Amino acid sequence: MRRKILHIILIASMLMSLMPAMAMAEPLTMYQPFELEGIPLVQFSDMEYPSDEHSAQLTNVDMFEMGGVPVIVAPPSAGASPVLYKLDPTTLQVTDQYTLGVPSGYDKYGKTILDNNGNIYTLVGYNNTEENPDKVVLKIYQISPLTFQVAGTAEIKGGLANMTDEQRMQQSISKPFVGGNGTMEYLNGKIYINIGKEGFKDNSGVVHQANMNYTVDCATMTANFGIDGEFNYVSHSLNQKMLIDGNKVVTVDHGDALPSRSLLLTVFDGGAPITKNIMDMPLGGFGDNNTGLTVTGLEATSSHYWITGTSRENWDNSEPPAAGLNRNKNIFLIKVDKNTLSVQTNWIYAAASNRFDYAVKEPRLVDLGNGKLFLMFTRLSYVTTHTRYAVINSDGTISRNDNYALQAPSPTSIQPILLGNDILVLGKTSDIRGNLIKINVTDPLAAVLVPSSQSLPQPEEQFSLTPGETYYFNVASAANKVIGTINPNLPDASLTYTPFTYAGTINGYNLDYTTRGKTT
Question: Other C-beta atoms within 10 Å of 7: how many?
Answer without folding.
Answer: 15
